[in-house]
Amino acid sequence: MRQTGKISRRQLIQGAGGLGLAMLAAACAPAAPAAPAVEDESATAEDAEPAPAAQQVLTLAQPEPFKALDPHTMGTLVDLHYHEMNFSGLVRTDANYNVVPELAESWEISDDLLDFTFHLREGLKWSDGSPFNAKDVVYSLNRNAAHEDASTKRWLANIVGYEAVRDGEAEAMEGVVIIDDFTVAITLDQAVDLVARMPFAAFWMVQQANVESDTPDDPWTHRAVGTGPFMIKEFVEGQRIVYEPNPHYWAGPPQLDEVVWLQLEDKQTQLALYENDEIDVVELDTVNVPRFKDADDPELVEVDMIWWWYTWKKVLIPPMDDIKVRQAFNAAIDRTTLIETVLKGLYTEAHGIIPTSMPGHNPNVQDIPFNPDRAKQLISESSYGDVSNLPPIKFFQPGWSGIFGIAPRLIVALQQMWQDNLGIEVEIKVEEFEYESAETRAQMGINSTTARFPDLESIVWEMAHSKSLRNAPELNRWGYGNPEVDALLDQARYTLEQNEKHRLYQEAEQLYITDAAIMPIMFNRLFVLVKPWVKNFQVGPTGTYPSTRDVVIEAR
Amino acid sequence: MTLYLVRRLLVFIPTFMAITLITYTLGFYGPGDPVRIRLGENWHDEEAYLALKHELGLDRPFTEQFADYLWAVLQGDFGESIYRSDLQVGEAMANTLPVSATLAFASSLVIILVGIPLGLIAALKHNTWIDYLLVSITVLGSSIPVFVLAPIFMIVLVLKLNLIDKIYGWEGLFSQKIIMPALILAFGPLLGVMRLTRQGVLEVLNQDYVRTARAKGLSGWVVAIRHVLRNAITPLLTNMGLVVAFLITGSILLESIFGIPGFGSLIVRSLRQRDYPILMGTTIIGASIIMVANLIVDIVYVYIDPRVSYN
Amino acid sequence: MEPTPQFDHSEKWEIKTRSLWGDAFRRLVRSKTALLGLSIFLLFVFAAIFGLALSPYDYLRQDLYALEQGPSLAHPFGTDELGRDFLTRIIAGARTALFVGVFVTILQVGCGVLIGATAAYLGGWIDTLLMWTVDTILSFPHFLLAVFINATLENPIEDAMVTLAERTGWQWVNNTVYIDYVVVFGALAMVGWGPIARLVRGQILSLRAQDFILSAEATGVQTPRIVVRHLLPNALGPVIVAATAGFGSIVLAESSLSFLGIGIQPPGASWGAMITENLGVWRERPHLVAVPGITLSIIVFAANFLGDGLNDALNPQSRH
Fold first, then answer.
1. Are residues C151 and B268, on separate chains, in Cβ contact within 8 Å?
2. Any CB–CB contact under 8 A between B109 and chain A?
3. Who's near C74: CB < 8 A, 6+ residues apart?
4. CA–CA distance from A441 to each of A449, B219, C176, C312 (Å)?
5. C144–B286: do the CB atoms touch at under 8 Å?
6. Beta-bridge partners for A395
7. CB atoms within 10 A of CB C1
8. Greatest Cα-to-Cα distance within chain B, rounded to the nearest angstrom
9. C24-30 CB contacts, 8 Å cutoff, 24+ apart
10. Is residue A314 a contact partner of residue A479, using CB atoms and an 8 Å limit?
11. Is the dihedral of CA B211, B213, B217, B220 positive or negative?
């Protein structure tokens, strides 16, 4: 009885609302200038809504705003979500982070590990139907090497002739050669695991005619031609990007009729839309996870990420130039409590930087243990002698951490621990990452990083090597450098035997952690709700959805 | 009167230029160096820095750059987003403004269709409990900001009463989702409109010709509609600019709560990304909207209230 | 040596003023709504000044083993996501609101009176220019401009503070918390002085036409003296009314800026920021959103009531 009453009241209100608006609309329709556009939208939205199994539509919402749809200018992690829809490379990673063939059917590596020969599949086509062959591979790699944006192309380094193209001294890299229409040879100047790097977007294919048709008012990325499983059907700025199957995809077009990506990054809004069956997948904000986890919700999927959280320090700027001070800051933080309480016990405590789900993870890495007395002692042993001699400490909080994200409260909790255990008042400075002066002002900050490709090079080398962009002192970044670590990392980078490589990287990781340039906090885990009618959906270890091409929607 | 309108339009021009100047100056001297931001990881490279600065025309005097910006703005070109290289500021605004306009339109309907009748009722029931109740609600209600109203409406209507379930997102004018944001956005101005109507009607009710009409035995409602409403509408119109300003402010605070892809969401997102070209564009457009609203008010005023002279 | 007539006028006016204020006060406390507004306002001021000293908790003190507790005797409003006593946070928010409200009101009234009086007294093209500036600033959507100024001023102000700290050695200047306040003060004051300036100008222009000023002018009293001794005291009533009503909107604007994440930064306490921080759990713990929201609304409403009451008390002829 009560139930019916509730429903009828709700229906009444809905009806009244609808009726009221319909009446208003009837009265004012000719006067409303925005009406056509709006009707258009609601029509599409209604089309998407009933979605029986006959209509294969997957609706997703972006976790944060994207920055660039060009695979060679990756800005944020969410960009990869979009890139993997309509672009692809010679190889890719599957949901378990294994390298598998994509456009290249097979490849050979010479004995000196410097020459790679890739054999393309035959009959490959771009999404516009034009043939794809070896010269497109060469164009794409050279285009990225010459690209004004440095964010992805540095992974092309070690290909012979890369520097010349990067510096504008040559048009094409000598090390990338067409053997025939379906064969490309790549030559390196030093042995690195190129195939492991190649699933990264830096190596993905773009079409010359398409890229060159770019104008500011009509960017090519909004109508990109690619080799990925989908292609852009509709681009509505600020609202959504709709993808449709690429009919020329080498493995045959995907079953889905449409993938709709809503540009709506607010996690609370997304959750509400998910609960109304308006989107099919949602990534949960930490604060909302317990509601579903405690109820053992069958729609909840947990995935361990190759994604690590840490606080960094600028080791060239006082007082972080003193290893004792750095170690004191680490020893003052009680991570176990932090994760149990503020993070609700949802994540794995990190002692190193190689995540648990990454081959090569070292469970025995020794970090600076939590010990307030030791922390104080370390300060008194340092060249500063006492906390009163330390300059003011500023802590950088990236603006992207969002208003509902976990980072702000994590930082405030860290701040309290430094205050309690060291008596140091750390000031928090919220800034956008791109904003250089922010990093100038702060001596430490928080960050989270995912692996770019399935190789420890993208984790340990990237974090700890003095030549890494993260440490380049002239960039005023972290400035870490330890010759011993560099030697180990360079050796590991050019070692292809996996066990030996892991051992070298682990040794470097241990030294890096002891130097306390960073303090590992946790390894991230994604909590994702997936509707039961979405089949074959998987979240990859870096948070992307690599199996979207295989998704099938079942009847509800 | 034509002279008045021409003069009024002419004042518009320097004011618009001043608005652009204020915004541009703040955007020019305020935030970090756009050249360094564009250089990204190469920002320390002095040679590249100077080259790019020259290429972007940022090494010229301020006045020259401002003139360029103003000229571009007049042609609808607000430059490029810093955060996303494939996004023109003008395009971003053109895509979000219709959404906000639709929401504002729905809110205005609520304001007019609810606010004016309530004001009329309060005036006709002057000094009864209905009047007191309505007046106290206006005073109490106008103190509540939209970002407080939104969660309160959500807690009451969704959590406690279970009246509406689809509150987030945007599907245009003809959907259930617009109800909640439109109501919340309308709430503050609605109370203001009600108060103004009440005041206007009360003033007119005391005029001789209305008294005569009432004495003749015409019922209160007929009088109200025939004579009163037309005169009471004038103060409403003069305050239209305020209502528009309120709707803009409200949309900044409200749209991101409900996931509405409008002008307000664009502002909040750009704020988080420190995307100054977009913030400059939205500030100029927001000010222009209010100026145009005030201009329309002034023009309509001439037709509605013949007592006003313009010399 | 100053002419005698001026003293006569002044003394006469002093007496009149005193009785005017006395009357006003009597009228104010007689109005029930104004009294209610005044009481809430005084309570708010008391809580803001002494509340933190009276609370057994520190508003920054975290207790990671007492996170997100519901209301209890020990914590009447429960604890927040970092185990801080929520009532104490609310009181700290009151202190922020009072601090910002008072400072910005002083800045706005100061600028407004100065500019309004200058415009009225100097007249001519200066008057035209100043009033046109006021019109221009008023044509900005206030809040949008405040948001924009807040976003752009942050870095220059921080640079200035850092330089100041280096030059003078006052390290306390170089502190993010103060910088947040200064940025919020600046942004809100810059958008809000216009109406006061316009009001003061109007008052002075109408007062200048009155006999006692005309006679003072005629006897050669210097302009600044007339402004300070005669015009400003008489324009004060409406300015107080406007400032009181404006106080509410300043508190509101500060909370709105913090709600957007650009006002007072964590771990500082602002009601707007508290709403943002807890909006993610409005289903699970609605009180964390409702309490700061309702508190904020009550303060704004009290300021409005008080403003209305003052208006009635100081301008009795304006009442219907």
1. no
2. yes
3. none
4. 22, 73, 11, 52
5. yes
6. A428, A444
7. 3
8. 88
9. C24/C237, C24/C310, C24/C313, C24/C314, C25/C313, C27/C312, C27/C313, C27/C316, C28/C309, C28/C310, C28/C312, C28/C313
10. yes
11. negative
Judged by phi (left if over 0) then psi (alpha if -120 to 50, else beta), residue A176 lies in beta
The residues, any chain, with a CB within 8 Å of residue C195's CB and separated by 6 or more, are: C112, C138, C242, C246
What pLDDT sits at residue A272? 85
- Distances in Å between the alpha carbon of C231 and those of A543, B196, C122, C223? 69, 32, 14, 10
CB interface of B with A, residues 198-227, below 8 Å: none
Gap from C19 CA to chain B (nearest CA, Å): 30
Q: How far is C28 from chain A (nearest CA, A)?
A: 43
User: How deeply is A488 buried, as exposed, middle or buried, from its count of CB atoms within 10 A (0-12, 13-18, 19+)?
Assistant: buried
Angle between helices C86-122 and C176-208 (to 10 degrees): 40
Task: Point out the residue among B42, B43, B173 whose CB comes nearest to the CB of A21.
Answer: B173
CA distance C186 to A216: 37
A208-235 residue pLDDT tens? 999 999 988 889 999 999 999 999 999 9
Q: How many residues does chain C have?
A: 320
| Cβ within 8 Å of residue C42, ≥6 positions away | none
C-alpha span between A192 and A480 (Å, rounded): 23
Rg (alpha carbons) of chain A, rounded to whole number: 26
Under 8 Å between Cβ of A543 and A77: yes
Instruction: Find out whether C156 and C179 touch, Cβ atoms under 8 Å.
Output: no
Among chain B residues, the shortest Cα distance to A235 is held by: B95
Contact B178, A21 (CB under 8 A): yes
**In 3-state terms, what secondary structure has residue B161?**
coil
* Pairwise CA distance, residues A402 & A406, whole Å: 8
Strand partners, A134: none
Mean pLDDT of C110-127: 88
Residue A357's closest CA among A400, A314, A302, A320?
A302
Does residue C269 contact residue C89 with C-beta atoms inside 8 Å? yes
**C-alpha distance from C299 to closest chain B C-alpha (Å):** 8
Interchain contact A316–C (C-beta under 8 A): no
Q: Please report the pLDDT score of residue C117 as a whole number.
A: 86
Question: Which residues of chain A make contact with B274, given a CB cutoff of 8 A?
Answer: 399, 431-432, 434-435
Which tops the pLDDT comparison, C238 or A249? Answer: A249
CA geometry: angle at A522 spanning A516 and A528, to 5°? 155
Asked if A488 and B57 touch (Cβ cutoff 8 Å), the reply is no
Express each pLDDT in C62-80 by its tens digit.
Answer: 888 888 888 888 888 988 8
Q: What is the largest CA-CA distance in chain A?
A: 80
Count Cα atoms within 13 angstroms, Cβ side, for C94.
Answer: 24
Q: Indicate the residue of B84, B88, B98 with minimum beta-carbon distance to A216.
A: B88
User: Is residue B236 very low, low, confident or very high in pLDDT (cuts 50, 70, 90)?
Assistant: confident
Which phi and psi (to 5°) does residue A126 adopt? Answer: -70, 165
- Report yes or no: B257 at the C interface, CB cutoff 8 Å: yes
Q: What is the DSSP pairing of strand A99-101 with strand A91-93?
A: antiparallel
Closest CA to C90 of C273, C250, C265: C273
Residue B208 CB neighbours (<10 A):
7
Burial class (CB in 10 A: 0-12, 13-18, 19+), C307: buried
Cα atoms in the 13 Å half-sphere on the side-chain side of B173 = 30
The residue whose two tokens read 């029931």 is B125
A267 touches C at CB < 8 Å = yes
Between chains, do A428 and C277 touch, taking CB under 8 Å as contact?
no
Q: Which of A291, A404, A428 sits opposite C266 (nearest CB)?
A: A428
